[in-house]
Each structure stands twice: as structure tokens, then as C-alpha cells.
Amino acid sequence: TGLASEVLKVGSFEMPKIQENDVLLKMQYSSVNPADTKKRSGWLGASLDKEFIIPHTDGAGQIVEIGKSVEKNFLNKMVWVFGGSKDAQFGTCAEYFPTNIENVVELPKETTASVASCLGVPVATAYYSVFSDNNPENQIFFITGGAGSVSHYAIQFAKLSGAKVITTVSSDIKKEICKNIGADLILNYRQLTEDEIVKQIIEFTKGNLVDRCIEVDFGFNVNLIPKILRPNATLATYSCSSNPNPVFPYYMYAPKGINIKIVQAFLHRNSFLSRCADFVTNLLKKDNLIHPEINSFSFDETFKAHEAQEDTEIIAKSNIKIK
């Protein structure tokens, strides 16, 4: 673990062998998520339990070999990876990537491999946050960090399902991004006090408050959230990076009976991921999604893709074009 420029190296390995339910992908793009850079950097003192790992969970490529139990019509299909390498030693940042057939989704012709490579973690996290135990129609959502990749999709999923969305940003550029994807109320948390944010949300909801909060940084907003959620509302939070050990104000949450979901979407296999894949594929075929900007790097510049992901001033996804 360490700095991207110091620990990410290019190396050669034997061609991966696949099992009977596996497919072998010739990768075209591999994308970087915050979890990838945290693992690489040794965030919170974490260390690798293996001599090496090939990084990244998400990517897109072509199926060039199939296991004996896989239907032959999958051969040569373009697919994107959907949960196939989480916590695995061999990730997608390689020329070839083996995975179970259940961990890939066919790529519609309407979507490029570059865009598809960046879908996996963000759309799974957004889908679970919006839809788990929930029908968004006519609800009001509070989705923080609206220009981030998960929130970018969560806002659109909620809006396409009939919800109204309040989001937060830290700049005018991010405000324009959120306006473009349909957010109804956009609040700049650097220009507003917490009390002002609460007041605007009360006014927007006509005093009814928020049905569901999707939170990118629980520790940052831990005191704001219970002020804006209505009784029996739900908080779905998928990260807590600014303060990994927040003080939890129990008796701000308890009187409202607020439900708290810690989101790890890829722990929910089978039917959940299948529904998510079908939902996203349908939107891709209809060209109904606006995707985040993408900065693409060459294979030899993988470390630069990690550095870009870690740079809070860059508003874009990072992926690597595999040679």
C-alpha cells in the first residue's frame, strides 16, 4: 500500500484459467472507484493480505472464452462487469479478466465501453439506496454530494421514478451538473449554514420534511440528517470518509424512529443485482441516462487515474484504456 505512483506497477502474468461457470474477458476499459484508491493507499491502516493484487472492481470488455456450463451465445459479446471482482486478488485492470457469468451484464449498442466500464459500483450503490424496501414515487429525497458518481445516478433514478430531489453541492459548476440531471432544489453547503439548509428544506417540503436521505458522508451530516427527515424516514449511507468515527447523536434520531441502512450493494446477490442490471440496461437502451464526465488514461498511466480519483477538485470519473 502507498502512493499510486509508488505502488502501482505493470507486470506480466500467465493467462487466467476459467471454471465451468466462468467467462474470460478481454478488457477494454477498467475504472477507478474510491474503494480502489482507499485499498491501495492503506486507508485506516489497512494492509494487503496478499503479495499483490490486480486492482479495480469495474470495467468493460469482450467475452473471448466461456466455461463448459456457459451458453455458447455469450461468446464474443461485449459486457460490463457488475460485482465480479470485489475483494478479489485479480481485478479488472488487466488485459484479461476471469469471472463468473453472473457477474457480467451485456452491453447495449447504445452505450460505449468507456461509459459502461464506470457503471458497476455507482449504479449498484445508487439503485440499492433509492429502491431497497422502497417505492420512490411521490417521495422527497435528500441526496448529498449531487455531482458525485453515485449521487449522479441516484438523482436520476429517483426522478425517473416520480420523486422530487433535494441535493447539495460545493460549487456553481456542480450546481449546473445537478440542474442538468433534474434535481429540484440545489443547496450549496459552503454558502449556507446548517440552519439555512434546514429552513430551505422545510419551505420546499411545505413542512413535511424528507422521506429518504442518501448520504455520501455520514459523519459530515450526522447532525443535519435528523433535522430534515420526517418520522419513520430512511437514511441510506454508503460512506463516511471525512470522519470515519463520528459521534452518533442517538436521541436526535430515536424520537423519529429513523431507519438507517449501511449500503454495501454487492452483498445483495442474485435477484437484487439482476433487477438492478435490468433497470439500468433498460435506461441505457432508451438513452435515458446522463453519465458523469470521464477522464481516460493509458495503461501505463494507471497511477494518474488513481491520483485523479483522489483529487477533490476534479469532477469526473477515471478509467484506464487497456492496451
Question: Can you characterise this structure?
Answer:
Residues 2-320 form the Enoyl reductase (ER) domain. Keywords: NADP. The chain is built from 12 helices and 13 strands. The longest helix has 15 residues, at 271-285. The protein has 323 residues and is of the alpha/beta class. Strands 1, 2, 3, 4, 5, 12 and 13 form a 7-stranded mixed beta sheet that branches. The radius of gyration is 20 Å and the shape is globular. The chain has 2 domains: 4-118 and 291-321, Medium-chain alcohol dehydrogenases, catalytic domain (Quinone Oxidoreductase, Chain A, domain 1, Alpha-Beta Complex); 122-263, Rossmann fold.
Topology overview:
Layout: H1 4-7, E1 22-32, H2 34-41, E2 58-66, E3 78-81, E4 96-100, E5 104-106, H3 113-117, H4 120-131, E6 140-143, H5 149-160, E7 164-169, H6 172-180, E8 185-188, H7 194-204, E9 210-215, H8 218-221, H9 225-228, E10 229-237, H10 250-253, E11 259-262, H11 271-285, E12 294-298, H12 302-310, E13 317-321
Parallel strand pairs: 6-7, 6-9, 7-8, 9-10, 10-11, 12-13
Antiparallel strand pairs: 1-2, 1-4, 1-13, 2-3, 3-5
Helix pairs in contact: 4-5, 4-11
